[in-house]
Amino acid sequence: MRIWLAPSAFYPARGGVEELTLQLARQYQWRGHDVTVVVHRHPAQLPEVDEVEGVPVRRVALDLPGSQLRGLAAYPAALAGQVRALAAVGPPPDIVHVQCPANQVPALTAYTIRHRVPLVITTQGEVAMDAGQIYQNSAQMRLALRAGAARASVLTACSRRAGDDAAAIAARFDGCEVIPNGVDPAQWQVAPLPEEPSFAAWGRHVPQKGFDLLIRAFVRVREELPGAVLRIGGDGEQTPILRELAGLGVEFVGSLDRAGVQRLLSSSRVAVVPSRLEPFGIVAVEAMAAGRGVVWSTNGGLAEATGGLGHGVDPNDIGALSWALVAAHRDPVQPAVTRAHAENLSWGNIAALYLQQYRSVITNR
């Protein structure tokens, strides 16, 4: 198959959708498919033609019109130009797969209509999770999602919660297929569980991730487990606030690459994902691939990501969160169990699920 993967962003930007796209592209290439990542050219100085770790990348300006009258009036012509630019990428693919729908949707929808190419759209929780609340603030984004969903042959979501959130805007997402995100187990090693009460959390320091809730709960954990340590990785806009809030036993270890996360997990007994809302939570699966049990937020798709293993809790309930942390230390999930769950969510398995959807669409075209 000739496959276009069309994420909302791609490298050199780094995040969940970028990693998801890269891993799927690699899996498809390994199976002999012709894969191109087609992505919005932002910032404009990025090259139009590129390659990231062996994956061809084509960047095309896929801007929405904005709110100014001049932009709105010029948009039909601009959209036609975007469709022509997509046609210049190469021969039409057999399938176009949008991951994390955003401003790329109108042009790709129009392109698939003109060239009679099946369209697959996967929501990654952007409807509720975008830091700028773009879907709440932009009627154009909501209209684009509805139009793309109406055209798509298949709609999927990374979790049931993500699908339900998208369905609140585009009703066709209601009851859509759930295909979870994955992990590469080979990138993670299982280390023996430390005996001491040690907890790890990492990610962007933004309110959505709930690190402030975790720090408040950890005060009570220290009352029950004197000498407990909480190591927090990552950074962001909330870092100064978190540092001021932190008490005894809280350590900030800074920004982490994959090797740094591995070291953090190896030195910790329990991983914590205390998000106020999380559409899936790939960090939880990474922790499980490293043999760690997880205390996870019940607000979102983490129950699906973890398979219900570990301790689910509403992190807004500080008392319940502190109890779950203590319980996870005293009765940890065995590393072999968490590792086995992560292996079931390998990128190879996830890619196979998507390819099954592609073949079904093409066969029934």
What labels describe this entry?
eight-stranded mixed beta sheet, alpha/beta, globular, Rossmann fold, about 375 residues
Provide the domain count: 2
**Helix and strand run:** EHEEEHEHEHHHEHEEHEHEHEHEHEHHH
Task: Give the name of the CATH superfamily of the largest domain.
Answer: Glycogen Phosphorylase B
Spatial order of strands in the largest sheet: 3-4-2-1-5-6-7-8
**Level-1 CATH class name of the largest domain:** Alpha Beta
- Average pLDDT rating: 94
What is the distance, rounded to the nearest whole angstrom, between the alpha carbons of the first and last residues?
14 Å
How does the helix and strand content classify structurally? alpha/beta
Please give the largest β-sheet: 8 strands, mixed
Helix content: 40-55%
CATH topology of the largest domain: Rossmann fold
> Helical element count?
15
The Rg value, from CA coordinates, equals 21 Å
* Low confidence ranges: none
So, CATH architecture of the largest domain? 3-Layer(aba) Sandwich
Task: Count all strands and give the number.
Answer: 14
**Approximate strand percentage:** 15-25%
Approximate shape: globular
Quick gist of this model?
The chain is an alpha/beta fold.
